[in-house]
Structure to design on (162 residues):
């Protein structure tokens, strides 16, 4: 059945016109193999982003060049996981996720998930993320601006929060 413009909506011409008008079409080039075939797998991570492929190649090359000298750049990577999540959710005091903790998140429109952390080495890290001059987490400020830390500590004369 033809539309009001006389073009059959199931025709190749209609499909090409829809593709040409697709506002997401410019993003296609950001994914590996996007021009090769249609990819409709619901149980997949999806197409590999070109930026991810390039970043992994750069990291692999760096590893090969730096060897043990690369430790300063990656040795603390596990502790940054909590900081990344906390920074993205604006929970300044979360800090690194540690053994025995459960991280629960809800993404609107997608759902809830939980990750239970198990570290066989039972490592621990400092709490509190220092988020710059406006940081309010006492322990983080104490580590980064010790001269101001006592100004943030609640006192007995402070009014109770409402």
């Amino acid at each position: 059945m033809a539309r009001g413009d006389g073009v059959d909506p199931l025709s190749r011409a209609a499909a090409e016109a829809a593709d040409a008008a697709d506002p997401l079409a410019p993003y296609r080039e950001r994914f590996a193999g996007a021009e090769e075939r249609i990819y409709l797998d619901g149980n997949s991570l999806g197409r590999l982003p070109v930026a991810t492929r390039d970043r992994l190649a750069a990291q692999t090359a760096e590893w090969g060049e730096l060897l043990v000298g690369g430790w300063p750049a990656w040795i603390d990577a596990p502790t940054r996981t909590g900081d990344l999540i906390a920074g993205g959710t604006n929970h300044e005091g979360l800090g690194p996720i540690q053994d025995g903790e459960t991280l629960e998140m809800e993404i609107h429109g997608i759902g809830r998930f939980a990750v239970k952390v198990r570290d066989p080495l039972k490592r621990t890290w400092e709490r509190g993320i220092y988020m710059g001059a406006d940081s309010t987490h006492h322990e983080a400020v104490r580590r980064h601006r010790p001269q101001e830390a006592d100004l943030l500590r609640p006192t007995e004369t402070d009014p109770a929060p409402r």
Q: What stands out?
A: The chain has a mean pLDDT of 75.
